[in-house]
């Protein structure tokens, strides 16, 4: 698997991290599997530097443990820690949605609606990859619309940490993609109406439902 930088904004380390995360989450790389830098670098066709960065990123998400002189090892997902991260992310993104309902311009609200509609088309067409892309764009638009740089930065930190748990495998479980699409519509409707309370509630519910889907997935695998 040869990787190269492109105009998508992804770095080599981010691509390696995403590829490994998908394999860990799906179970193709089991708990206890040792991730040797040289082997991973050869497999992805990159140098060791982006591999080291990718492994550090995965350690932050709790998918990998890095020990001195032992290297990186795949670990069992800590569901309690995962719940904590989703809970924090839900409150942060809910506040972003609240501020967006109060502060977005009319043109920004229209753009958000258009993004949601493209996501709906992807969901209706059974395209989890397309939907995942629109999902990231959707949330980014709300972060920017909150007009709070510090809050948006914090929201993006949590989205990065939780990114392995937004892989397409989760959209294919229990019709999650369709449900997520419906939740996006509710968020958009509240923001367009300028209903800050409802936008905050809808976003919190959206993240909570996402976390339940992920937690149930890992519970069934145990």
SSE map:
Blueprint: H1 12-26, E1 34-35, H2 37-44, H3 48-61, E2 64-67, E3 71-74, H4 79-103, H5 106-124, H6 128-145, H7 149-162, H8 168-171, H9 176-193, H10 196-221
Antiparallel strand pairs: 1-3, 2-3
Helix pairs in contact: 1-3, 2-3, 4-6, 4-7, 4-9, 4-10, 5-6, 5-9, 9-10
Give a description of the structure.
With 222 residues, the chain is mainly alpha-helical. The protein has two domains: 12-74, Orthogonal Bundle (Arc Repressor Mutant, subunit A); 79-221, GntR ligand-binding domain-like (Four Helix Bundle (Hemerythrin (Met), subunit A), Up-down Bundle), CATH 1.20.120. Helices cover 73% and strands 5% of the residues. The protein contains ten helices and three strands; from the N terminus they run αβααββααααααα.
Count of alpha/pi helices? 10
The secondary-structure element order is HEHHEEHHHHHHH
Helical fraction equals over 70%
CATH homologous superfamily placement of the largest domain: GntR ligand-binding domain-like
Spatial shape: elongated
Provide the CATH architecture of the largest domain: Up-down Bundle
Main sheet specs: 3 strands, antiparallel
What is the straight-line distance between the termini? 30 Å
The average pLDDT is 90
Low-confidence blocks of residues: 5-9
Secondary structural class: mainly alpha
Number of strands: 3
User: If strands are numbered along the chain, what order do they take across the biggest sheet?
Assistant: 1-3-2
- What is the CATH top level name of the largest domain? Mainly Alpha
């Amino acid at each position: 698997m040869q990787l190269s930088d492109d105009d998508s904004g992804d770095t080599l380390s981010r691509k390696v991290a995403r590829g490994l995360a998908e394999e860990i989450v799906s179970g193709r790389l089991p708990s206890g599997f040792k991730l040797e830098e040289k082997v991973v670098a050869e497999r992805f066709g990159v140098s060791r530097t982006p591999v080291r960065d990718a492994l550090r990123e995965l350690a932050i998400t709790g998918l990998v443990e890095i020990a001195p002189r032992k290297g990186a090892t795949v670990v069992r997902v800590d569901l309690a820690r995962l719940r904590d991260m989703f809970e924090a992310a839900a409150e942060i993104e809910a506040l972003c949605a609240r501020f967006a309902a109060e502060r977005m311009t009319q043109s920004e609200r229209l753009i958000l609606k258009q993004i949601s509609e493209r996501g709906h088309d992807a969901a209706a067409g059974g395209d989890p990859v397309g939907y995942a892309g629109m999902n990231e764009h959707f949330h980014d638009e709300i972060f920017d619309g909150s007009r709070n740089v510090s809050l948006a930065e914090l929201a993006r930190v949590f989205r990065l940490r939780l990114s392995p748990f937004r892989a397409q495998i989760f959209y294919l479980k229990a019709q999650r993609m369709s449900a997520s699409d419906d939740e996006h519509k509710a968020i958009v409707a509240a923001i367009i109406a300028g209903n800050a309370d409802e936008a905050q509630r809808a976003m919190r519910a959206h993240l909570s439902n996402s976390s339940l889907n992920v937690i149930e997935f890992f519970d069934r695998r145990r």
